[in-house]
Amino acid sequence: MRPFLLLLLLLINLPTIAQNKTIGTNEKLVFTASYNMSGLLTDLAQVTMETSEIKTSSSTLLRLKCRAQTYTKWDNFFKINDLYESYVGANSLRPYLYKREINEGGYYKFMQYKYDRKSGQVQSLMRKRAKVGGFYEVKDKLRIGSESIDLVALIYHIRNLDIHKAGNGSSDTFSVLFDSKENPVTITLLGTETIDTAIGEKSCYKLSIALNNSDVLKGKNSNLLWLTADNNKIPVYAKFKVAVGSGELRIKSASGLKHSI
Amino acid sequence: MRTLLLIIGFLAAILGLIMTVLPFGYLGFLPVVLALIIGFIVFKMDKSQNASGKASKIIIAIGVIGLALGLYRTIFDTNVVADDQEVIKQEEESLEEAKKELEDLDIDE
Questions:
Q1: ipTM tops the 0.85 cut
Q2: Which of A13, A106, A176, A256 is disulfide-compatible with A27, CB 3.0–4.6 A?
Q3: Full-model pTM
Q4: A58 touches chain B (CB under 8 A)
Q5: Which stretches does DSSP call E strand in A59-216?
Q6: Does B52 touch chain A if contact means CB atoms closer than 8 Å?
Q7: What are the structural domains of chain A?
């Protein structure tokens, strides 16, 4: 009876101790972000997603860094310089620290989540520019679920899913901490498609992303992500629809991947 | 009819010129092409009526400037991001701060 119970416990806990089989420790993905203006796509910014290994005195973590920067031709009109970082367990991809620093045309916001996994709490810190000059900070403590992740970690978690085992129409829901609130994000596999990309013609998983209980992402099946249907599951193409319009992300280059392409 | 075409032509030419000065890409060509088409239509109308056609020539001239500017930007404007030291410094500082924050945490990995 005892071995059976142990096996049962192991199976129940299997999704929570999922191992990183996809993300390399020195990966760099570069994208072009385009914005839809009256039906014509205009290249607006470059998005870079990089991973690197970080060692602390007690553990080894992965730094997942996402940077969005407008192309220089736009900088005089509207400059975007955003940095998103998530420090996750190298194997579990579970986040321990999340930082978001956005600089968008004079608007500045810094957000930090420090996860205390044992107590199920997050220490949040928000820093904004004060109207009278200088900055002000707001500190808070939030209670979160054990599987709660952040936006950056979500992208890497999706890539680490065993999508090849899922059938068309199957979905998975993640609890994502954003703007000091946990939001359920549902990922649905719509099917497979072969698309032309800057890194070659790729057979891809087509996924839809829905942010429940929030109006950040608009439309049904309007936010789509194409991941290569191989061991790297590279996000090669994405379409998004937000309150201020729609756009897309196209891959420009991919290097330092865990598996050869 | 001629007056209406002239108003639309002037507006399209000015809009096209502004959009080609700004980095709107192919989108800037839409009003420029519209202005050129209207400019030529009014020019033909003026020619058939033996009018001076001065206004239509101005629309065509602005349209040609917009077209040249748009083509220049399409060919020579490349998609590059600022490679400034400030960005590199910001990332390094962020990493150093993160390392300090992570040392305080009880990481079970």
A1: no
A2: A256
A3: 0.83
A4: yes
A5: 60-70, 81-89, 95-104, 107-116, 121-129, 135-143, 149-150, 171-178, 181-197, 200-211
A6: no
A7: 18-255 (2.40.360)
